[in-house]
Write a structure and sequence with these properties.
By secondary structure, the chain is α+β, with helices and mostly antiparallel strands. The chain has 2 domains: about 90 residues; about 140 residues, endopeptidase fold (from Nostoc punctiforme). It is about 55% helix and about 15% strand. The chain has a 6-stranded antiparallel sheet. A two-stranded antiparallel ribbon has the order 1-2. Strand 4 and strand 5 form a beta hairpin. It is globular and about 45 Å long.
Length: about 230
């Protein structure tokens, strides 16, 4: 009988350890709390076993095994979801998530960020529309056509005319953002996330900027959404 009780203690403690490891692996920042939980569970399990009646040993052994099976299934399920999520994300998405200070899960359009990465750093050239040099409206038009199959007019002013007007707070990925840099609507970019937009800058070429930067905040006119 004494040997059976010792074995049961080992099973309950092992189950408690599996439970804590399973849940603790999901969030590293809860490591300290996890250690506290494990200590408490150990004490509860051992106190329970010190007072357990021999007639309930068999039943408790079955309950512990059932609980362990459920814990193992939950752990496997959580790990599978995490692995599948990571596998669907590209290194390009991680790169731009860091640049834009957002969670990588927010950058769901992998094709968009692959396109941006392909063009990133291309020189600005007024009237240009190729990798040798491109201006702001040609770039926004090329992006919208390639990613969203939207055909838009050639100039920033004409693109502005066909858009539904939007405030900054209502912008979504793929919307246009318009600026007054030389009088009237004279510059355009494509909104991404977290107030960032991609555009052909006259000084930096294809780059990502922040709508809250002093220069762009002062020059901002409106957001625009293409409805096709």
């Amino acid at each position: 009988m004494h040997q059976n009780t010792n074995n049961l203690k080992k099973i309950v403690v092992l189950s408690a350890l599996l439970f804590v490891c399973g849940t603790g692996s999901l969030k590293a920042q809860y490591a300290v709390n996890t250690l506290t939980i494990f200590s408490n569970k150990q004490l509860l399990a051992l106190n329970f076993l010190n007072n357990i009646s021999l007639s309930s040993v068999a039943k408790t052994h079955t309950d512990v095994n059932t609980s362990k099976d459920n814990i193992d299934k939950t752990k496997v399920s959580a790990e599978t979801v995490s692995e599948n999520t990571i596998e669907t994300l590209s290194s390009t998405q991680f790169k731009y998530a860091m640049m834009m200070d957002v969670d990588v899960e927010e950058l769901t359009n992998k094709t968009l960020y692959t396109f941006i990465d392909d063009w990133y750093g291309t020189h600005y050239r007024m009237g240009g529309n190729t990798k040798k040099g491109i201006d702001c409206s040609a770039f926004s038009g090329t992006l919208l056509a390639s990613i969203y199959t939207f055909n838009v007019p050639r100039t920033a002013r004409e693109q502005y005319k066909i858009c539904e007007r939007l405030d900054k707070e209502n912008l979504m990925t793929g919307d246009l953002v318009f600026f007054n840099t030389r009088g009237g609507v004279s510059h355009v970019g494509v909104y991404l996330a977290n107030n960032r937009f991609v555009h052909a800058s006259s000084s930096n070429g294809i780059t990502i900027s922040n709508l809250d930067d002093n220069y762009y905040a002062k020059k901002f006119i409106s957001g625009g959404r293409i409805n096709q």
